[in-house]
Amino acid sequence: MLSSSLIRFNNHKLNSKKEIINHTSRIKELLEQESEKDLNRSAGYYHIVFDMINKFNSRIQKTDLIENLDSKWGYLVKFKISGISLELVCSDFQKITDHYIATTIKTQFKLLEVKSKFVSIEEYAQLLNVAEGAVRQWLRRGKIRSATKIGNEWRIPELTPKPSRGFTPAMYCWDEDLIGLPKEYEFLEGYNYLYIEQDYHDKKVYSVHLQKQNGGDEIIENSSYSASRNDIERLELFLISSEEIDNVEPMEVFNLEPRWNQYLTKQRRVMKDKKYDKKIGTEVE
Question: Which of 52, 150, 155, 252 is the most exposed place for a label (fewest CB within 10 A)?
Fold first, then answer.
C-alpha cells in the first residue's frame, strides 16, 4: 500500500514539458470554475492570475527541460503569493511501516518563476472588493504577512489572499543578526527562526517559539514565550515592517487539493472504464 505522502508526491510531480503545461492549464480551468462563485476576489484578481499562468506556460514552452526523469526526480509547479514557479526536486522515500512511507525532498532547484507584482493599498482593496480602511486595519493588526514597507508606503503582492478569520500560525526567518532592536523585541537577538501559534485550549493565549539554526538546519538553541493577542499583533507588525526579516509564506495561494483529487479520481475512473486490446495504444471502441 502506498502512503499518502508518496501518493501526493506522485500525483503532483511532473516529468515532461507537456505534463507541466497540461497541469497548469487544468489548474486554470479549476480556477475559472472557482472564480464564478468567489465573493472574496474580484474579476480583476482572477484576470491577473490567468495572465500569470499564460506567461508561465509561454516561458515553459521556450525552456529546454529534461524529459523522462528518474522516479525520484520530478518537476513541481508552485502557486505562491510571490508568484508561480517551476522547481526540479529529488525526493527520498523511507519506509516507516508496512503501510507508511515517508517522503522528504532532498534537493530542489528553482528553474523559473513568474513573479507577482506589488500593488498599493488602494489597488489591493479593489482586487478584493473591500474598503481601503479594511486593508489598513489588516496591516495594523499584522494580518497581511506578505506586505512590505517602502519608506512610509505599504506594498502588497497582488496574489495575496484575503486574510482569513481567526489566527493562522506564522513563521519568520532572517539571515543576519538583528542589530538595534527596540527594547521590547531584544529577545529576538541570537535567533534566526520564529514560529507563532495559538493555544489549542485557550484561544486568548499565543506561543512564540524561537530557534537558532546553523546552515545544515540543525537546531543549536531554542526558547519559547507566551503572549496575548495584542502582543502578537504588535510583534507581527514589527516583523512585517522589518527589511531584514522574511515571512515564510504558505505553500499555495489556492487550496485546490480537494478539487484536484476529485479530478484525479474522475480521470482514473475514465481510464478504468476504457478497454484495450493487446496492441499498445490501440483502443477498443
Answer: 150
